[in-house]
Amino acid sequence: MYKELAVALGLGAVFLKAQDGWWGVGACPQGPEDDSIRPFKVVMQIMHPVLFPHIKIHRHICLELFWTVFACKQGLICAYFSPDSGIDIHYVHVKPKNLAEGTRAVPLMMVHGWPGSFYEFYGIIPLLTEPSSPDDITFEVIFPSIPGYGFSEAPRKKGFDTVCAAHIFNKRMKRLGFNQYYVQGGDWGSLITTNMAQLKPNAVKGLHINFAPSGQAGLLMMLSILFGRRFPKLFGFTEHDVKRLFPTMEKLVVDALRETGYMHIQSTKPDTAGRGLNDSPVGLAAYILEKFSTWTDPEFKNLEDGGLERKYSLDDLLTNVMIYWTSRCIISSMRFYKENFGKGLNQPHAKLPVYVPTGVASFPNEVMHSPKLWVTQKYHKLKTYTPMARGGHFAAMEEPQLLAEDVQNFVKIVEKRKKK
C-alpha cells in the first residue's frame, strides 16, 4: 500500500507542476497571491421582464425573473467570493449550528456538474450539517461553483479542464484551514473530485461519487462486455447491470448517440450554440430542463410535460436556470466540454488509478451505468458500492436523503465508526 501511495504522490506532484496555472488576465503577478474572502450577495434588477405565451413553464419563468424564491434562500446561506489563480471563485460554506461540545465537524466539499449548479446541494445541506441521529457524522459543507459556472468567474485563457479545477479546489480547502477533508461529486463534479484525490491523496481522506464513468477499456472490461450477458455471475453482474448493458449495441452505442448530441455541440462549437441561448431565457430553460427530464428518468421523454414536477418543484428548477441566465455563464459552462474533450480522451489523469478510499452511489437511472467490476479498475480502494433504490443523474437535488445516507455510511467506514 505504501508503495502505491508513493507512486500516486509522485504522479500527483508531476501533475501539479504541469497543470497548476494562472487563469486571470495577463501574467501571474510576483509575490503572494491575494487570498481575501468577500461575502457574496446576489443583487439584480430586471427592468423589462419579457412576456411569453401563457403556457405553464413560460408563465412561471416570467414570475421567476424576480427570483424571490432564491433571494430568500440565499439570505440564509453564507456565500463568498475569493480570488484563486487569477479568477474569482464563488463558494458556499455552511458550518453546523449545533455541534456538540468536544466534537469536530468533518469537512466535505461537494462539486456540481452541467447543467446544474451549486444550488443542487441546497436540499442536502441540513441533512449533512444537522443530522437527526446522534450516531451520524456532522459535516461542515463547502460547495463551490466551477469556474465558468454560476457566479465563479470564467477562465480568461484556454486550457482550463477538470484537473485545473481540482487544483483550485484543493487550494481552497487548504486556505480554509483543512489539512484533510472529504470530497463528493456527480457529473463533472465526479471527475473534478477524482482529480482532487489523484493530486492530493494525502489531503483527500475519502472520495464519494454518484457518477462513475468507466475508465479506459482494459481486457477484463472487454471480456465482461463480450460474455457478461451469458455469464453474469462470472463478472459479478447483477440483474440491473445486465439490463443496463445489454444488448450492447443498443444500450452502449445507440442510446449514447441518442442522448449525447449536446456533448458533440459543446465539445466543438460551444460559442455558436451558446450565443443563441444567451439571448433567450425560454430557449435557455428548454435546453437545460430537457436534461433534468431525460437524465432523471429516461421514460420521462414519453410524457407531454417531461415529468419535471414528479421529482422537482418548478421553483427549484427555474432557480437553477436563473443562475445561468443572470450570470450569463451558459457559453463558458459549455466551453468546459471543449477544454476537456478537445485534449482527447487519453489524458494522463485518465490512466491514473485512484488510491484514496472511494465510495460510489450507483443510481438506477444514471445516464451512464458502471457496474462494480468496471469501477474497481480505476478506484483501487473501493470501500462502498451502493445500488441505490431510485434516482437518476441529479442525485443531490432529486434524492437528497438517499445521497446523504450513503455519504454518511461511506464516511463512517473510512473513519472506522462502522464496519464495512
From TrEMBL:
This enzyme's EC code(s)? 3.3.2.9
Which GO cellular component does the record give, naming just one?
Answer: endoplasmic reticulum membrane
Q: Which of UniProt's keywords are assigned here? A: Aromatic hydrocarbons catabolism, Endoplasmic reticulum, Hydrolase, Membrane
Q: Which reaction does it catalyse?
A: 1-(4-methoxyphenyl)-N-methyl-N-[(3-methyloxetan-3-yl)methyl]methanamine + H2O = 2-{[(4-methoxybenzyl)(methyl)amino]methyl}-2-methylpropane-1,3-diol; cis-stilbene oxide + H2O = (1R,2R)-hydrobenzoin
Q: Which organism is the protein's source?
A: Sinocyclocheilus anshuiensis
Q: What's an example GO BP annotation here?
A: epoxide metabolic process
Query: Which GO molecular function annotations are given, in alphabetical order?
Result: cis-stilbene-oxide hydrolase activity
User: InterPro entries, per this entry?
Assistant: AB_hydrolase_1, AB_hydrolase_fold, Epox_hydrolase-like, Epoxide_hydrolase
Q: In the UniProt record, does the keyword Transport occur?
A: no
Q: What does this protein do?
A: Biotransformation enzyme that catalyzes the hydrolysis of arene and aliphatic epoxides to less reactive and more water soluble dihydrodiols by the trans addition of water.
The taxonomic lineage of its organism, from the top, reads: Eukaryota, Metazoa, Chordata, Craniata, Vertebrata
Predominantly, its location class is endoplasmic reticulum
List the active site. Answer: 187, 337, 393
Q: Which PANTHER family match?
A: EPOXIDE HYDROLASE 1, EPOXIDE HYDROLASE 1-RELATED
| Start and end residues of each AB hydrolase-1 domain | 107-327
Which domain of life, per UniProt? Eukaryota
Keyword Coiled coil carried by entry: no
Name where it's found: Endoplasmic reticulum membrane; Microsome membrane
Q: How does it sit in the membrane?
A: Single-pass membrane protein
The molecule here is called Epoxide hydrolase
Family the UniProt entry places it in: Belongs to the peptidase S33 family.
Which residues, by range, are in coiled-coil regions? Answer: none
